[in-house]
Amino acid sequence: YTISQCLPFLDVLLQNQNGTLHTSVYHKPAAEPTLLSYVSDHPRHIFRNIIQTALIRAIRYSSTLEAFNFERRTIRLTLLCNKYPSIYINEQFQQFFLKYLSTTSAILPLIDSEEQYVILRQNLLAQPSIKQILIDKSAATVENIIQDQNIQGYEGTTNEKYNKFRNKLFIHCLHEGRFRDLQRQIHEIHDSFFKNTIYQDIRLIVGHRNNPNIEFELTKKRPSSWLLKNEPQQKKYFF
Questions:
Q1: Rg (alpha carbons) of the chain, rounded to whole number
Q2: Is residue 18 part of a domain?
Q3: Where among 73, 97, 126 does a domain terminate?
Q4: In this structure, are 116 and 51 located in the same domain?
């Protein structure tokens, strides 16, 4: 088998440089640098997660500091094109590097040497990905269910789930920028009525659902679940 000079595979670009394989983030030529616009009506933590995820992806896929710096500049330009403020980008970059590095620039987060980048990359690669965490949780859940069924039966598992959510009250509402303080106001109203009562131990959890928009509806790739059901059709007999 022979290895060519360059080979893209999914989101990774493999390069053969003098017999040494290097990896970097692969961008499809036809793909436009678009992501969720900063001016869209979504909760603020979504924009923070977009930047954090892009940086983690860049470090995981980039085997050298040069490749990572190139991808970091690409991320910054993409964010600026989607109306992310430069101050906000610097703040999120700063928080990301402060989380994994002992020292960083006070103005713009920088990695000074290849050794420093290798340490950062090893720390991130040692952490499980979101998919791995979900798989481990699913495996642990199945194992716990099997053990509970062997020891106490299915009733013990049902009671455990019931006790987990017995003292919690969930409320979900559509997110809108003009109702930014709605979550805090709901908690204040709840505390004003139920504090120092028998219901004060009930924990109120207020969650947000993203407000649907035209772009989301037009880019929806998967059909509704009821269309995916393969229901057998009854045979019709004609006499």
A1: 25
A2: yes
A3: 126
A4: yes
| Other Cβ atoms closer than 10 A to 111 | 21
Please indicate, yes or no, if residue 160 is contained in any of the structural domains: no
Split into its structural domains, the chain has a count of 2
Contact assessment for residue 84 and residue 38, using Cβ atoms and an 8 Å cutoff: yes
Is 132 within 8 Å of 86 (Cβ atoms)?
no
3-state secondary structure the chain: CCCCCEEEECCEEEEEECCEEEEEECCCCCCCCCCCCCCCCCCHHHHHHHHHHHHHHHHHHCCCHHHHHHHHHHHHHHHHHCCCCHHHHHHHHHHHHHHHCCCCCCCCCCCCCHHHHHHHHHHHHHCCCHHHHHHHHHHHHHHHHHHHHHHCCHHHHHHHHHHHHCCEEEEEEECCHHHCCHHHHHHHHHHHHHCCCCCCCCEEEEEEECCCCHHHHHCCCCCCHHHHCCCCCCCCCCC
Q: Does residue 71 contact residue 33 with C-beta atoms inside 8 Å?
A: no
Task: Give the pLDDT confidence of 71-113 residue by residue, as tens digits.
Answer: 988 899 989 988 889 889 888 888 888 877 765 455 555 677 7
C-alpha–C-alpha distance, residues 239 and 65, integer Å? 77
In a domain, 33, yes or no: yes
Regarding predicted confidence, which is higher, 217 or 40? 40
Residue given tokens 């001016």 in the structure block:
39
Does residue 47 sit in the same domain as residue 120? yes
Written as six digits, the tokens of 46 are: 């979504």
Give residue 188's domain range: 167-222
CA 221 from centre of chain = 19
